[in-house]
Amino acid sequence: MAKKLEGYKGKAKNILDKQSFETWDILNIKTEKTEYQGILLPRNEYSRPEFIEIKLKNNYNIGIYVDDIMEITKIGTEKADYKIPEKKFPKTKGFPEVKLLGTGGTVASRLDYTTGAVIPAFTPGELFSAVPELAEICNLETEILFKILSENMKPEYWKKLAEKIAEEANNGKDGIIIAHGTDTMGYTSAALSFMLKDLSIPVVLVGSQRSSDRPSSDAPLNLINAATVATSNIAEVMVVMLGSTSHEYGLIHRGTLVRKMHTSYRNTFRTIDDIPMGMVKNRQIKMFKEDYNEKNKGKTKAMTNFEEKIALIYSYPGLTEDQINFYIKNGYKGIVFAGTGLGHVSTQVYSAIEKAIDENIIVLMTAEPLHGFTGMNVYSTGRELLDLGVIPGRNMIPEVGYVKLGWVLGQTTNLKDAKELLLTNLAGEFLPREKPIAFNYDIDSLLRNDKL
């Protein structure tokens, strides 16, 4: 039997208990400043105890601070059923065979208000009900590898993903879609880019900024665009997400050059230091780049060894040697700095960096500003760091540098070979030069002016 006030505790529970309210009651709540009407929702057990949560008529959820409440009255009861109906996903002869792998995230999802978790709608039938257009693009199979919040992603899961993708590619699948939370999608796309060698089919990571029960969800279009790219001839690891706030098109980003750039915008993902590989609009792909591998009949290999003792340190005023010494003491094999400007850290940590390098820890420098290249020959600080043995990471995004160093040290423990591999362009992570149109690009403007 469900608890009457599941997840509530403290002051909020006392107020609701006093009037015998239960979850799923429709309440009218007056505060000092306004009035709300909505369904009383269950709460997560870890939620703050001083808030009451309701679902408004517009489908948005709000938390109301109990000390602001003046009066609560019950209007009725409406238990929500968030189960997505299932319809059989039709199989069409001759359509590409695509596998959708689930890791978590909010793509084609529903909310479980009892736990506070977003639950993926993941059977083919659920997806067909949620996004019927998918059946016009491919024959779809699905498999949930793990259900995690993307902040809980770790190298162990990257390995499982890479091995599963290689298995599916070598067993005849035409494309792979990975449903993934957006927060660490850039890390996973980089990891798969390095781990999957001789990739023979498209691998597309997709997510959504707003879950499917939200009126402004980007999930359906992102899934349609991802399926379109997964059935293309582009044999690369890519992120495909909304490219405009108007839901007009999606952008195709290379897995080692992409980053989430806003906490909540739907078009949050951007290619850094370059333009995207292409765009998807009305199920049609327009490529902006020609330097990509094409789909082929070769064997995909998963090279998943990964050294997990890698640190990523952002430089900041006041950075001390304590952090660096901690990683030295605890046996770390590599340190990636996100340095200020062209790739700098305070001179006050030089001795710790020198000690790390003396103890065969590889130190890689990336640029905190994200856009642009490290330029460690320009100022004395950079030159001194080079003299210590710090390796310049060119245009690599800090988190891509972290992933690459971990992967490289998983392949070899020979420092000379590792440094050589680190400076080799393995998966499109290095660019030959800066492109002026790439900084804060506006795709619509570039298209209007025939720049793409």
Question: Which key features would you list for this structure?
Answer:
alpha/beta; SH3 type barrels; Rossmann fold; five-stranded antiparallel sheet; 11 helices; 24% helix
What does this structure look like?
- With 452 residues, this protein is α/β, with parallel strands linked by helices.
- The protein has three domains: 10-77, SH3 type barrels (Roll); 97-302, L-asparaginase, N-terminal domain (Rossmann fold); 310-422, Rossmann fold (3-Layer(aba) Sandwich), CATH 3.40.50.
- The protein contains eleven helices and 23 strands.
- The protein has helices spanning 10-18, 124-130, 155-170, 185-195, 219-230, 321-329, 350-358, 380-388, 398-411, 415-422, 443-448; strands spanning 25-31, 35-40, 51-56, 61-65, 69-77, 97-102, 109-112, 117-120, 139-144, 175-179, 196-197, 203-206, 237-242, 250-254, 258-260, 269-271, 278-281, 284-287, 301-302, 310-314, 334-339, 362-367, 391-392.
- An eight-stranded mixed β-sheet has the order 9-6-10-12-13-14-17-18, with helices on both faces. A five-stranded antiparallel β-sheet has the order 4-3-2-1-5. The protein has a four-stranded parallel β-sheet with strand order 20-21-22-23, with helices on both faces.
- The termini are far apart.
